[in-house]
Design a protein that fits this description.
Nucleoside Triphosphate Pyrophosphohydrolase; three-stranded antiparallel sheet; single chain
Length: 363
């Protein structure tokens, strides 16, 4: 006797979602294209619980495309500071300006037009159109990749082009004809709360009956891990140049590279010489320097060991003037958008440095 037919993947998932899914996320009320877009970009490589307070603060300050487009990049980065992957914030700002110039300040409802905007890829475009407009588009974020890789027992790392092609085909084939917004949220919720990376709750999964990894009792083997590569360690020094008013010199980082567009003390690469940089870049003469405890920060492809150097200068420092990419900042004032390690360093400096660097200290 043949087994009873299994209800469609989407039908089972939507039934589960109605009872167990997340229905009170801030970008769902109201669920506009703008709010979905902001949330989807924030959720790239970041968990929901981390994103929620940032999202609420961000949309309170930038409630629509026009406001975001007309804001200064510094303001946008300030409201992003601490969330990491700052290229996302720069892309949001660039995309908003592009929408204002080319689409009347609205997110386009055409899939290909969305793909032309900075920071919007295939999955983000599909998520925006599905959730905001109920359009029939698939998504493939990290949670969805894990669900589908297990359900279909895709043996390769999901980031491999061959596996990615398979997963996209499956994701599109499983789409329902209705309730696309709910379905999109449901499959993300399933990956976040049931089909988790570690210790998935297969007994509570609505699609476990035909999940190939579950049937074979090999759930822990899927999805395949990314081929491991050692992350190189890079070293740099941060020059804490303080003037007589107790202000520290900050520079805006270049728009590309680490901490692009953010503000931090002047950095010198490994093997760089502080005295040479001060003389050639700023016309300043180093009297002495004091090494503070090092900071370590992990990026996607490398780790950075940062050595803060408290700088004592010989003579006046009038050669350093505020400019568009330089400013003097008091520790107790509200700083501009700082990278997380630099913000932590500033917090430490508030309690450890009580006198300007022009006063004598032990080098």
């Amino acid at each position: 006797m043949s087994a009873a037919p299994i209800a469609s993947f989407a039908q089972r998932l939507l039934t589960w979602f109605d009872q167990h899914g997340r229905h009170d996320l801030p970008w769902q009320h109201p669920r506009s294209a703008y709010r979905v877009w902001i949330s989807e970009v924030m959720l790239q490589q970041t968990q929901v619980k981390t994103v929620i307070p940032y999202f609420e603060k961000f949309v309170a300050r930038f409630p629509d495309v026009t406001t975001l487009a007309n804001a200064a990049l510094d303001d946008v980065l300030l409201h992003w500071a601490g969330l990491g992957y700052y290229a996302r914030a720069r892309n949001l700002h660039r995309a908003a300006r592009q929408m204002l110039a080319q689409h009347g300040g609205d997110l386009p409802q055409d899939f290909k037009a969305l793909l032309q905007l900075p920071g919007i890829g295939r999955s983000t475009s599909g998520a925006i159109l599905a959730q905001a407009h109920g359009a029939r588009h698939a998504i493939l974020d990290g949670n969805v990749k894990r669900v589908l890789a297990r359900h279909a027992a895709i043996g390769e790392w999901p980031g491999h082009p061959r596996a990615s092609l398979q997963l996209w085909e499956i994701s599109e084939r499983l789409l329902p004809s209705q309730r696309l917004a709910d379905y999109t949220q449901a499959i993300m919720d399933l990956g976040a709360s049931v089909c988790t990376r570690h210790k998935p709750a297969c007994a509570r999964c609505p699609v476990s009956a035909d999940c190939q990894a579950h049937i074979a009792q090999r759930v822990a083997e899927y999805p395949a891990l990314k081929p491991k590569r050692d992350r190189p360690l890079k070293q740099a020094s941060a020059l804490l140049i303080e003037n007589a008013a107790g202000e520290i010199l900050l520079e805006r980082r270049p728009p590309v590279g680490i901490w692009g567009g953010l503000w931090c003390p002047p950095l010198i690469e490994e093997n760089g010489d502080a005295a040479t940089v001060l003389r050639e870049r700023y016309g300043l003469q180093l009297a002495s320097q004091q090494a503070l405890p090092t900071l370590r920060h992990a990026f996607t492809h490398f780790e950075l060991q940062l050595q803060p150097l408290r700088i004592r200068l010989a003579g006046a420092i009038d050669t350093v003037r505020e400019a568009s990419n330089q400013r003097w900042v008091k520790l107790n004032d509200t700083p501009p958008a700082l990278p997380t390690p630099i913000a932590k360093l500033f917090q430490q400096l508030k309690t450890s440095i009580h006198q300007p660097c022009l006063e004598p200290f032990t080098a």
